[in-house]
Automatic annotation (TrEMBL):
This is D-malate dehydrogenase (decarboxylating). It is an enzyme of class 1 (oxidoreductase). Signal peptide: none annotated. It comes from Amorphotheca resinae ATCC 22711. Its EC number is 1.1.1.83. One of its GO terms (molecular function) is magnesium ion binding. Residues 24-367 form the Isopropylmalate dehydrogenase-like domain. Its cofactor is Mn(2+); Mg(2+).
């Protein structure tokens, strides 16, 4: 995106300095600890862009969430997708409210963005960050460095099915998984390309075709077809239940994983816990065609039990922000952000979920300070 006049959602304008790209980011903090961690993420990103002075970020703050739903009877305004298409990326907090059924909040906000914007590739990197440890005995940092690719548009979360004769003894409810050749082949191709880009060039296709003899057998057939396009990628197939034991007992055998909407949803939460905490885990909801903005979010959820206590772990948002920068073409900034985060963690500054005693603000301020220190050091050394 070339330098241009950008307008935030609140109507203020910012002029990008000549020769410096500026990216418009839609900020949707939403529910629970979402506003706390998104505020922390924006603080860190603004520190990074100020100190680097090589690109700019303009944030448009959108108040969509459960409070918006209570007021308006819906989570999104009617023109929400048109609004979002005016941005380069979306930074999302969390959705969920104890007084609103989860299936209403999830389908009303997050899935109402992901599916129509064709963010079909959900990418969840998992590794043990410096300064953290895995609950797995004798698991080193080199043993657990994975990328889980989740099909994000259909499968078990396609939204097909229904209920009839509710409240009767003969009530019926169906939840229909949808697997299309178009949907399965495009996520398989994306997963093989992701595996090819990593040093080990290895992919595990997760399935359950021994019991689900239609959709999952079709999933396997599509995997075999796409694999032929990638002779340089080593791949294997694993039943989802067996995959859980492999993740725990033999993490060093795993590199890149592709699974259905439901299976990868579950496996990636397990992966986050095995890496140290669900509070550090990032997510990228990508439209690989780049026709629509992609959305980046921590996976920890709204966590109402700690909302407002100032102890939420912001690292998942920092890592998601780094993935967003990388997607926007700012890989050097992404690396610097993650180096700063890991330096702070290694220095012992961490929240309760990681065994520390620091607040969200303390971790955030420390990361901002480390960004400033690293950039100053690099400039002094002429790097």
């Amino acid at each position: 995106m070339s330098p241009a006049t950008v307008t935030e959602q609140n109507g203020t304008e910012g002029i990008a300095p000549p020769g410096r790209p500026t990216y418009k980011i839609a900020s949707i903090p939403a529910d629970g600890i979402g506003p706390e961690v998104i505020s922390a993420g924006i603080q860190v990103l603004e520190t990074l862009t100020k100190e680097l002075d090589t690109f700019g970020l303009e944030f448009g703050h959108l108040d969509w969430g459960s409070a918006y739903y209570r007021k308006n009877g819906q989570y999104l305004p009617d023109n929400a997708l048109d609004i979002l298409k005016g941005y380069n990326a979306i930074l999302f907090g969390a959705v969920g409210d104890p007084e609103i059924p989860d299936h209403i909040s999830l389908w009303g906000l997050r899935l109402a963005i992901c599916q129509p914007l064709q963010q079909y590739a959900n990418v969840r990197p998992t590794r043990i960050l410096r300064g953290t440890s895995s609950p797995l005995r004798s698991c080193s940092r080199r043993d657990l460095d994975w990328v889980i690719v989740r099909e994000n548009s259909e499968g078990e979360y396609a939204g097909h099915g229904g209920t009839s004769h509710l409240n009767e003894a003969w009530s019926v409810a169906t939840e229909v998984s949808i697997f299309t050749r178009h949907g399965v082949e495009r996520i398989m191709r994306f997963a093989f390309e992701t595996a090819r880009s990593r040093p080990r060039k290895r992919l595990t296709v997760v399935t359950k075709s021994n019991a689900q003899r239609n959709g999952m057998v079709f999933w396997d057939l599509c995997a075999s077809k796409i694999a032929a396009e990638f002779p340089d990628v080593e791949w294997d197939k694993m039943l989802v239940d067996a995959m859980t034991t492999r993740m725990v007992l033999h993490p060093e055998t795993i590199d890149t994983v592709v699974a259905t909407n439901l299976h990868a949803d579950i496996l990636s939460d397990l992966a986050a816990a095995l890496a140290g905490s669900i509070g550090i885990a990032p997510t990228s909801n990508l439209d690989p065609t780049r026709a629509n903005p992609s959305m980046f979010e921590p996976i920890h959820g709204s966590a109402f039990d700690i909302t407002g206590k100032g102890v939420a772990n912001p690292v998942g948002t920092f890592w998601s922000s780094a993935e967003m920068l990388r997607w926007l073409g700012q890989g050097e900034a992404a690396d610097l952000l993650m180096e700063s985060v890991e330096n702070v963690l290694e220095g012992g500054v961490k929240t309760l979920d990681l065994g520390g005693k620091n607040t969200t603000k303390e971790v955030t301020d420390k990361v901002c300070g480390e960004i400033e220190r690293l950039i100053k050091s690099k400039k002094e050394r002429g790097i």
